[in-house]
Amino acid sequence: MDKEARDVSSCIATAARALGLYADNVSDYVDDPDRTNCLVRRYARFGDSPIVDRFVYENPRPDWVVLVEETIIKAVDFLRGTPERSGVLVINSQRDPEYLLKFLPGEMKAKLAKFVVVDAVGLAEQRGGSPWMFVRNLSELAFDRMSTEGAEERLAIGLGIAAPLIGALVAATGVLPLDAVAGVVADRDAMMRGAAHHAVVEFAAVAQGAGKPETTQATAPAAAPHAAR
Predict the structure, then answer these.
(1) Which value, to the nearest 10 degrees, does the dihedral of the CA atoms of residues 138, 142, 144, 147 take?
(2) What does residue 84 show for φ and ψ, rounded to 5 degrees?
(3) Domain-embedded: residue 132
(4) What is the DSSP letter of 149?
(5) 85 occurs within a structural domain
(6) How far lies 57's CA from each of 13, 14, 76, 186, in Å?
(7) Which residue range forms the structural domain that includes residue 48?
(8) Residue 203 contacts by C-beta under 8 Å, 6 or more apart in sequence?
(9) CA distance 34 to 40
(10) CA 169 to CA 178: how far, in whole Å?
(11) 37: which residues sit within 8 A by CB, 6+ positions away?
(12) Do residues 12 and 46 touch, judged by C-beta distance below 8 A?
């Protein structure tokens, strides 16, 4: 799952740079420098202003969070530092959004603006008998085998479950043009399937005192031929 998480952050940062934004893409070496059987975080940052803390290997205030595997929802406080009703959480799962939300404590739900669920496994192009991970052999990941920072990728960026996750994220947030991001994703078709088929729980109504959050089945608009700006 390290490869898939890396692809999500890499594609977002690459697309942002292509649009003329300042962008950075880093790995988290704070939790476990060896990354052995532990939770691994990948970060992409972009904006209109230069990034001054380029050598900070974590983001204490994430705006968007993508969970490559659904059980991570029970693992840690991945919304730490996120302001209330501002975060977007995307999770790879076939389960009902309301069921998954049961695993989030109230203080984490209070930070969400949108909760997005996409069946990335079902929407992705896979290899082998089990439709889970595109990567089957660690030697495929990079020339140094372990895909450490700076190693050259053997496989294209944006394959497997990463593609639908990217599509759902870009469509739900609406910040980056869909077609511009698709241009840097290896499996464009799978990304577009993720953009078109995902469920969104909106928490804006809760913030305005309008009651329970609303769940919608989102359909992304068709990508323009040239969306770069």
Answers:
(1) -80
(2) -60, 140
(3) yes
(4) T
(5) yes
(6) 15, 18, 18, 26
(7) 2-218
(8) 85, 109, 112, 113, 114, 115, 213
(9) 10
(10) 10
(11) none
(12) yes
Mind listing the pLDDT tens digit for each residue in 112-130?
999 999 999 899 876 655 5
With respect to residue 94, please indicate whether it lies within any of the assigned structural domains: yes
Give the whole-angstrom CA distance, residue 85 versus residue 42: 22
59's tokens: 């983001």
The CATH number given to whatever domain includes residue 54 is 3.40.920.10
* Domain membership flag for residue 67: yes
Neighbours of 176 (CB within 10 A): 21
pTM of the model: 0.83
**Using one digit for the tens of pLDDT, what is the confidence trace for 152-208?**
666 788 888 999 999 999 999 999 999 999 999 999 999 999 999 999 999 965 555
Total domains, the chain: 1
Residue written as tokens 């290899």? 127
As a whole number of angstroms, the distance between CA 117 and CA 150 comes to 31
Strand partners, 214: 202
Please say whether the beta carbons of 40 and 206 come within 8 A.
no
